[in-house]
Amino acid sequence: MLTAEQFPDKTEIKLALFDTVIAYARSHGMQPQLAQGLLYKYLVERDDFSKLEETFQSGKSILNYAEFLSIENRITLYHKLGVHAYHLRRYPECIELCKRLVFEDQTESSFKAYSILMICTSYFHQEQYEFAEKYLKAFSLFKFPFVKENVDFMKAKLNQRRGKTELAIAQLQQCLQIYSHKINIVNSLLTVYFSESDFDSIEKLLQRESDFIGSDLSNPLVKTEHAYYYMNKGKYLNAIGLQNEAIAYFIKSVSILHELSEEDEELICKIENARIKMEKAVQEGKNLTDVDVVNLSQELDDYLVEIQKKGLIKRVLWLS
Questions:
Q1: Neighbouring residues of 256: CB distance < 8 A, sequence distance ≥ 6
Q2: Which residues, by range, are in coiled-coil regions (predicted)?
């Protein structure tokens, strides 16, 4: 059977060929060939990061045919779908898919190692820290080069969540000094610094921006980390009174995840300006029943409804 790699630069041709194979296999009751065709089609489609939700749903449908795949292809399916679920923050589904892989894979493969790490981080995001620690320990037993970096980083994040702030900062700073992939470490440090209102440390970290900002944003996780960084930078600029500069970085954050029109950017500016005015009114001791505060609240609600209709709020990190 043909594979995706045999047509490396012709996505449309690949998909057309797989559609032909799928249709033939389905009409002739050839379940193994049907399952394989669906899998290969999914592996091509999932590279279109603008359709992550749509392709995830099509990928999940292949689970109905998993029994007809070889063990190797089942492992590939569980791994790719697990990563896909993680990108979409569907953590329970990520855990389920990765556990299927761990059960199926009797080797000590990199797929198995990454799957255990994704189980760990998914539990972490769900604030189930005991399970996160359990799977982090299992992940630490693998011998791959990427293991120590991820173990050190996750230990720091677990300490942060459990209130061991000074230890977490020291561990994150050490990770930042040692490891090459820095943007996720920077975001974790900024989160801790914000929680401590340590604006001096935030400023010093932001001054090192050229050390950790990358140019290749093709990976969805890397793209999200950069968007989150610019959101954090905007929060800092807003906190020190540079509202216009802050809004520019909020827009930059959102535009990394979505292609924004001028109308979208204008709407984001309106939302942020309304929010700033609301904060100022509260700081001045105005009551929520004051006419100008009520009007501001209604204005902000109207903008949020509008941005929800546009579908932007789903991924606008700085509004969450």
A1: 217, 223, 226, 227, 230
A2: 257-291
Cα 250–253–259 angle (5° rounding)?
A: 110
How many CB atoms are located within 10 Å of the residue 309 CB?
9
Asked if residue 43 lies in contact with residue 80, where contact means CB atoms within 8 angstroms, the answer is yes
Coil/strand/helix, residue 144: coil
pTM of whole model > 0.85? Answer: no
Percent helix, percent strand, percent coil in the chain, to nearest 5: 75, 0, 25
Residue/partner pairs of 57-61 with CB below 8 Å, 24 or more apart: 59/84
Residue 261 near residue 312 (C-beta atoms within 8 A) = no
Closest C-alpha among 109, 47, 50, 49 to residue 74: 109
Tell me how far apart the alpha carbons of residues 200 and 182 are, in angstroms, rounded to a whole number. 20
> DSSP of 185-203, one letter per residue?
HHHHHHHHHHHTT-HHHHH
Sign of the torsion formed by the C-alpha atoms of 266, 225, 45 and 99: negative
Nearest to 234 by CA among 210, 217, 255: 255
Separation between Cα atoms, residue 105 and residue 281, nearest integer Å: 58
Exposed, middle or buried: residue 238 (CB in 10 Å: 0-12, 13-18, 19+)? buried
